[in-house]
Amino acid sequence: MVENVIDAGTTERTRQKLLVAATEVFAKQGFKSSTIRQIVTKARVNVAAVNYHFRDKATLYSEVLKFALGSILKKYPPDMGVTPGSTPEQKLEAFILSFFLRVLDQSSGAWHGPLMAREMADPTSALDDLVDHVLRPLGDYLNSILREFLGSTATAPLLNACAASVVGQILFYRHCQPVIAKLNPTLTYRREDLERLARHVYEFSLAGIRALAAGARR
Amino acid sequence: MVENVIDAGTTERTRQKLLVAATEVFAKQGFKSSTIRQIVTKARVNVAAVNYHFRDKATLYSEVLKFALGSILKKYPPDMGVTPGSTPEQKLEAFILSFFLRVLDQSSGAWHGPLMAREMADPTSALDDLVDHVLRPLGDYLNSILREFLGSTATAPLLNACAASVVGQILFYRHCQPVIAKLNPTLTYRREDLERLARHVYEFSLAGIRALAAGARR
Amino acid sequence: MVENVIDAGTTERTRQKLLVAATEVFAKQGFKSSTIRQIVTKARVNVAAVNYHFRDKATLYSEVLKFALGSILKKYPPDMGVTPGSTPEQKLEAFILSFFLRVLDQSSGAWHGPLMAREMADPTSALDDLVDHVLRPLGDYLNSILREFLGSTATAPLLNACAASVVGQILFYRHCQPVIAKLNPTLTYRREDLERLARHVYEFSLAGIRALAAGARR
Amino acid sequence: MVENVIDAGTTERTRQKLLVAATEVFAKQGFKSSTIRQIVTKARVNVAAVNYHFRDKATLYSEVLKFALGSILKKYPPDMGVTPGSTPEQKLEAFILSFFLRVLDQSSGAWHGPLMAREMADPTSALDDLVDHVLRPLGDYLNSILREFLGSTATAPLLNACAASVVGQILFYRHCQPVIAKLNPTLTYRREDLERLARHVYEFSLAGIRALAAGARR
DNA sequence: AATGAATGAGCCTTCATTCAT
DNA sequence: GATGAATGAAGGCTCATTCAT
Lengths: 218, 218, 218, 218
Hints:
The structure is a homotetramer of 218-residue chains. With 218 residues, the first copy, chain A, is mainly alpha-helical. The first copy, chain A, has helices at residues 2-6, 14-33, 36-43, 49-54, 57-75, 88-104, 112-121, 126-150, 156-175, 177-183, 191-217.
């Protein structure tokens, strides 16, 4: 079932081939610059197939977004390796690392990162679904972790600001990648690099959170 | 003198009108989705004016980027209110606040924020110039501040990671604005709001930096 | 079979209609002055059809050239009516007459003449193919005839000069037609007229060739 | 007076500069492909100068044609080196050589050849003037020479056909130059080459004319 | 007499979409 | 289900020409 989505196999349907090809094309060039011809050529199907299976280009894009996000969340769940008895510190570190992996995964077929970055910069109607089904739950989960640090009396603005501080540090590497690549050409994103970056963000954030927690209690 | 660049008054030239109109259109729709016809209609000039004054759409876009960035940097310089005798803390706080103001300025005609966000997500050839003339100097300036905290023995990776942590927290509000608006609809970006956010990022970052500085010295 | 190429009948395909219409338009106005709109209007097809069937205007033009030249060479082959045992004189006369017919054929749909004349005066990249596949073989064939008159010891410059003299006399009526029409308005180009002109060129050339052959042997 | 036309001198007027520049541009690219911008750039004058001095592009072209033809006829008159007592053979040879020189002159600023070739392939209204004032007198002069060979009883069609045979041989090198350059890349058009070609055309034609003269008398 | 700015028409091309098989 | 052909709407750009000085 799930395998069919990723492994095309011999019985791969036209619809499935389109989805895979479109994901890559949209991720690389964005919605507007991608052409249906590019997609169907890569998928080795007919020009009319997109309109037949997805009604139009916009709908295909929308499906691609869901498809890509679903895959990545299965691959790197937010609570990666966390057990019921884990400390807040362990939960936070796991959250940060899994976020890094999701957002900067370089393995072939992982187009989730660039896709989401584009969607932020230039939102389409597909964003609404995304927020409701994925982003909001993710944010709530992070807030629940932060509340363990900041205490139950922490105000919503403080929680949100801290969540933003954590997530912002990570997304920076995604959203500003073109600039980073120019300023710091040697920076790579292998698994070990991401672990190092995640460690830094964890330490930086932990200190920040604790300082604010102390301030909030005072 | 400088005012003439922005407000050309009644003798506003076609070139200037184009620049102003194009800035807004590009900021709202991005380079690819914007059409020359939209721009010239808004500027109330002829289609051929773009070709005459800027050669082509790409060059116009490039000029718009320089124009917008130049304006905003004049309005909110990175060392805003800093004197020669200022402490590192004061410099850092000024840097963060000015960055927030630049990136999230809501005053009419301030299209710098969305423009840059799009350029990050979908870089054009104009990005190269931008990096060399604006972004790299800005990064160097931040690093010089951070070095005052981290000491002269701090490694380049540590400096870069800290700089990324600081800047990432700020840019988050820009690059993820569509999502933030949905998750936290009450958040506004008036001057006072930005000062509050800047204060948070400053405190959060200061704690993070100091923790890492201590670790580095150990 | 072959007829289908020219007369597609009621099931005439868009591609064929474009080819026919484009031939006439290009012949009458030249490549640069002809517009795709003129062509598709005449062919009663959509603007995008040119791009779909021929990629662009230049390729369409190139195909038109091949099409027109192929048709006319089938209609009037260079060795028209020549048998294996024909004398050099008969071969030369046949060559001249067929050349006249090809170049000045007035029957409807015979746009080969003006098309080639324009291509000479204002060559496009399509000329290269033409020379290699059509013109050079034609020239070689004429040279082989001339060699029968001039002997195997005739130098290449002499052969080329004589070939030029023969062909030049014919092409004059094509390339200078606008001027001839003004200087000699009664001159027409029906079959019988062309036969008379061909007879003149044949006699004129035969005398010229024989004189030079005598000179060469001496 | 005449010098002003050719020698720009220090007091060269805008009009004159335009004429010189336009001649070259039109000769190289044809009327349609030449742009006013190219011409004014080469002439180092303002864009509006063409419309100011010549009303429009077409009129400028017309003036260029007259200008170029006038120059070349002065340089190489049809009766070059012929004296009252010259024989018909001498007159014919002089006519052919001067025609060759006029049509294939390679010296800088001699754009008459390509200009006329284009005008033949794609006549404009400027051709009428040309025929009346230049081409017809030239044809009459050639006919008068031919009549000395063919006798006063020669019919007009015969005279015209012979004139065409002579002129056609020469113009071939002009009108088919692109093809000749490909088929015979070593052929050059220095003065000595033209004299050799003229000699060939003269001998070839002389034999042809004499043969037809004999036939006409019989 | 001459200029730089500005104009509007038009051209080639591309693209998403639909039609007919 | 699936395909190749065909469509109409723009889009970027170029060009000759005119306007205001």
